[in-house]
Amino acid sequence: MKQETHLRANGPTRLQRDLLPRIIGLIRSDGLERGAHLREVALARRLQVSRTPVRAALEFLAKRGVLDWRPRRGFVLSQPGDSIAADGLPPAPAEIDQLCLKIAGDRMAGRLPIEVTQAELLRRYAMPRPLLLRVLDKLAEVALIERKPGHGWLFSPAIDDAQARMESYEFRRLIEPASVLAPSFKLDPLWISEMRHRHEAMLAAPWRETSSIELFEMNAAFHEGLVAAARNRFMLIAVQQQTRLRRFANYNWTYGYERVVASCTEHLEILDRLAHNDREVAAALLRRHLDNASKLRRPTEPY
Amino acid sequence: MKQETHLRANGPTRLQRDLLPRIIGLIRSDGLERGAHLREVALARRLQVSRTPVRAALEFLAKRGVLDWRPRRGFVLSQPGDSIAADGLPPAPAEIDQLCLKIAGDRMAGRLPIEVTQAELLRRYAMPRPLLLRVLDKLAEVALIERKPGHGWLFSPAIDDAQARMESYEFRRLIEPASVLAPSFKLDPLWISEMRHRHEAMLAAPWRETSSIELFEMNAAFHEGLVAAARNRFMLIAVQQQTRLRRFANYNWTYGYERVVASCTEHLEILDRLAHNDREVAAALLRRHLDNASKLRRPTEPY
DNA sequence: TCTTGTTTCATCGGCAACCAAAATACAATA
DNA sequence: TATTGTATTTTGGTTGCCGATGAAACAAGA
After folding, report:
1. Interchain CB distance below 8 Å, B150 and A49
2. Which residues contact B212 (CB under 8 A, 6 or more apart)?
3. Is the C-beta atom of B50 closer than 7 angstroms to strand C?
């Protein structure tokens, strides 16, 4: 078959997987209806990629029945944008982060010694060396591990330590409220309403196994979004690093459901204030929210 | 000759070069006298390395005449520690940073397009691919460049932009004074006095060509030292990143000598306050110092 | 002319192998 | 016994190559 020259039988590649949710996001935010024509070049430009991976992703969606395809006519929505089920798609949390997560987790659980070499890790986790190096560099960025001068890598003694947790909150407590108060702070009303929807949906839905990850990502998006609105790239970078660190350190929520409710409620309160541009109060609430979170102790895990 | 099995004729390797100043630093801070015996194992342990590179570094120093070597007796200081001339040694500003510096510089000068591929860079700068990748990742860490989703890398539009400068100062203005005021802040008196010496020496010496780099590194050490004293690893990481960013963006001082004097004076004032543990005033001075610096505009360069 | 289909070219990442040198174990000597 | 000298093992940076795939040019059809 000539028409799938560029799509391998084994399925979508990494880039193509990453593209899928973004394409669906565009379809949704554009409010496209059934029958709308998806132009390849336009998508490619908006996604900062060439047509090739876009085509592949579209073909994948066509196979899933989300799109219809007719020769010489391209891809067309087979259903309204907001009815597309998201769960069929691989959530794709950035693969490389997955590995960081796994290694950090193994270290915390004591399955890895405090000092390791690349070779050991390569033997333990079957992965290409360049990938491992990028993983290690990424862990080093958030100070979870450190290159020894000669050979070998040294995990920070205190990954799981309460100390690191405290420092992290101290840091965020400094940056996040300051962002909200920055003169350059400007929040997109659309972002506010979308964020509110997500929180309300989280509160409404029953607690499932996967909710933990969803919750984490929603929280991360909330905090990063606030800082992004201050339009200071360095603050944003710093907070993103914190997010990554926390992602590696605790992906699962162990504080009980009532804390979920409390956290969401606090977020919603902050959003309300920001919707009315009451930034002083919002910043104060944010500060208290972080304080509340920092006071929690993991009840179950014996770290 | 069997005795130099481990030292290649082409000279010290990267690790060995990095070891040289650290060894000399240890000799100095231990206040060793002429004739003192340098034990290999002890050095290796203190430097977190094996004996091999230590030996090589010591042999190098012996060739330079700093040490004497006798068979079966090891290395011995041929002169008192504080009389060792530091300038014969390669200063070694972390090679990888050198490359970042060069690439960032070429971009700023317009010698590189806004969008590049790995292959182009490999052709332009002769370097191994893994090294280039680490350089690019490092530049990405400070938001000077960004990986496109598919192929290619995109320089941030505003490397040299006044905007980035402003954001950087805003960020540091937030973090650095907060560090000084942190409850955990604790400064080593030795650090204070050494830092004061360096500043006084800088003021006393005439302005040479190389003073620019010296000045930059001294400033960096000053600001990083203050933040390090707050004992919050994330604040420290953030400030170190800022330092690296500034190192890449402007290694040369273009504000005139009177600003050098002013800056050093301000630093000394802050050090005085800190010596008396007057942290509130020190923090205020630090804030003003950063404000002063942020208001400067590069007079000469036409970016 | 604009969009899709097809082909070509360049790029990138994985893989295997190589080699300098770092780590380590062992021998020799003060 | 402590320290240096020597040999061995292991590591990690480097190189070259190959295949998958993204980018880009071209062709064809609405």
Report:
1. yes
2. B251, B252, B253
3. yes
Give the contacts of A131 (CB within 8 A, at least 6 positions apart).
A96, A99
pLDDT tops 50 at residue A25? yes
Q: Which residues pair with B69 in a beta bridge?
A: B75
Q: Which of residues 95-134 of B touch strand D (CB under 7 A)?
A: 128-131
* B123 Cβ contacts chain C strand, under 7 Å: no
Residues of B in contact with A237 (CB under 8 A): 141-143, 241
Q: Given this model, what pLDDT does residue B6 score?
A: 38
Residue A211: which pLDDT band, with cuts at 50, 70 and 90?
confident
CA distance A226 to A229: 5
Which tokens belong to B259?
């600003």
CA–chain centroid gap for A60, Å, is: 23
The nt closest to B42 (CA vs C1′) is: D3
Domains of chain B: 2-83 (1.10.10.10), 96-155 (1.10.10), 162-295 (1.20.120.530)
Give the pLDDT confidence score for residue A172 in this predicted structure: 96
Contact in structure between A142 and A245 (CB atoms under 8 Å): yes
Angle at A139 between CA A217 and CA B102, to 5 degrees: 110
Task: Please write the tens of the pLDDT for every residue from B184-243.
Answer: 999 999 999 999 999 999 999 888 877 777 888 899 999 999 999 999 989 999 999 999
Contacts of B49 in chain A (CB under 8 A): 148-150
Q: What is the value of pTM for the model shown? A: 0.83
Both structure tokens of B286: 């630090």
Using a CB cutoff of 8 Å and minimum separation of 24, what contacts does B245-248 make?
B245/B142, B245/B143, B245/B144, B245/B168, B246/B168, B246/B216, B246/B220, B247/B97, B247/B101, B247/B216, B247/B220, B248/B97, B248/B100, B248/B101, B248/B104, B248/B105, B248/B139, B248/B142, B248/B144
Which residues in chain B are contacts of A182 at CB distance < 8 A? 170
